[in-house]
């Protein structure tokens, strides 16, 4: 300690304290009484004291919400945004690259090796995978955070895909060489294995990414293959696991995640070994390269005219016109 005005009379309070960080003096005198102008405020979410009268408070909103004209009520921002998962956090960023903010939603912190993420718009719930481990979920306002499906039950899920029509959650499980589905609603989360390594080239080898098109009844997945007959591939099946088909198999070593453009009926996927983002039709035709020269392309997403993708080595999120 030292004199607070001139820094003299320095005294060591405690020796042998490894890596001391912050500290605070605890005493009622440090927190004198005052009038709480927020006590009867009409703020719907957050009330902040102010030195400006006559109210001496102002209302504020959490990330993803905006203050209405009445200056009291918070309303949800309906602008589209990207949900980004990193090792330790999930947050939202605007689709406009000129806007460098990352507060389009309430951030979800404290992840352990976050891997993939999906979003239930009707219920405003975010689901994510911590690999190797569990599937978690949280409301978009940051409430009701739970471990939805523990690792002891699921194994090691990697990719997620929400069927928003039937409210089922599909996931890939490379540790068990399978693709599985989990019911979201109800007291019991029933699950079923849909596709396995059955010795056929159309089976699941090392599945990674997964996407669904519920209106057409189709699921798609990327697979890094095995050394025993299952090729690295982009594959499809009906959403009940029937009729699996290998759509694309050439030059797909270390294929990563994918997305489906439902409106245009197109598939996009990332390939680390070639540093490319590719596109193809769900019938296995019209395969073309969209982006080249990447180091470690990973996640992909589509919205309207743009394709968004991540590069883990370059540590960037980029977008391109998907028609190029």
Automatic annotation (TrEMBL):
Any single Gene Ontology cellular-component annotation: plasma membrane
Entry keywords, A to Z: Disulfide bond, EGF-like domain, Glycoprotein, Lipoprotein, Receptor, Repeat, Signal
Start-end of each LDL-receptor class B repeat: 217-264, 265-306
Every Complement Clr-like EGF domain range: 57-78
UniProt keyword annotation of Repeat present: yes
Keyword rRNA processing annotated: no
GO molecular function: Wnt receptor activity; Wnt-protein binding
PANTHER family recorded: EGF-LIKE DOMAIN-CONTAINING PROTEIN (PTHR46513:SF13), VITELLOGENIN RECEPTOR-LIKE PROTEIN-RELATED-RELATED (PTHR46513)
Protein name: Low density lipoprotein receptor-related protein 2a
Source species of the chain: Nothobranchius furzeri
């Amino acid at each position: 300690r030292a004199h607070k005005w001139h820094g003299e009379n320095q005294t060591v309070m405690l020796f042998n304290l490894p890596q001391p960080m912050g500290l605070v003096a605890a005493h009622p005198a440090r927190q004198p009484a005052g009038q709480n102008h927020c006590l009867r405020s009409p703020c719907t979410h957050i009330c902040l004291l102010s030195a400006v009268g006559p109210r001496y408070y102002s209302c504020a909103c959490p990330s993803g919400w905006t203050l209405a004209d009445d200056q009291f009520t918070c309303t949800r921002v309906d602008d589209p945004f990207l949900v980004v998962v990193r090792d330790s956090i999930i947050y939202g960023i605007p689709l406009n690259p000129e806007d460098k903010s990352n507060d389009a939603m309430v951030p979800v912190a404290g992840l352990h090796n976050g891997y993939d993420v999906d979003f239930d718009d009707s219920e405003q719930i975010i689901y994510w995978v911590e690999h190797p481990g569990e599937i978690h979920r949280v409301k978009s306002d940051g409430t009701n955070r739970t471990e939805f499906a523990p690792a002891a039950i699921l194994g090691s899920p990697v990719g997620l895909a929400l069927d928003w029509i039937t409210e089922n959650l599909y996931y890939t499980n490379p540790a068990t060489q399978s693709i599985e589905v989990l019911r979201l609603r109800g007291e019991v989360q029933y699950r079923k294995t849909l596709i396995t390594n059955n010795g056929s080239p159309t089976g699941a080898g090392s599945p990674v990414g997964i996407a669904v098109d519920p209106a057409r009844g189709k699921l798609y997945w990327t697979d890094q293959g095995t050394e025993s007959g299952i090729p690295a591939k982009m594959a499809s099946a009906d959403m009940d696991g029937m009729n699996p088909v290998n759509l694309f198999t050439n030059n797909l070593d270390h294929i990563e995640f994918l997305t489906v453009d439902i409106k245009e009926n197109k598939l996009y996927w990332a390939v680390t070994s070639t540093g490319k983002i590719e596109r193809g039709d769900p019938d296995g035709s019209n395969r073309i390269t969209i982006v080249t020269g990447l180091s470690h392309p990973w996640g992909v997403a589509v919205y309207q005219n743009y394709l968004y993708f991540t590069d883990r080595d370059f540590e960037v999120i980029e977008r391109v016109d998907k028609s190029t």
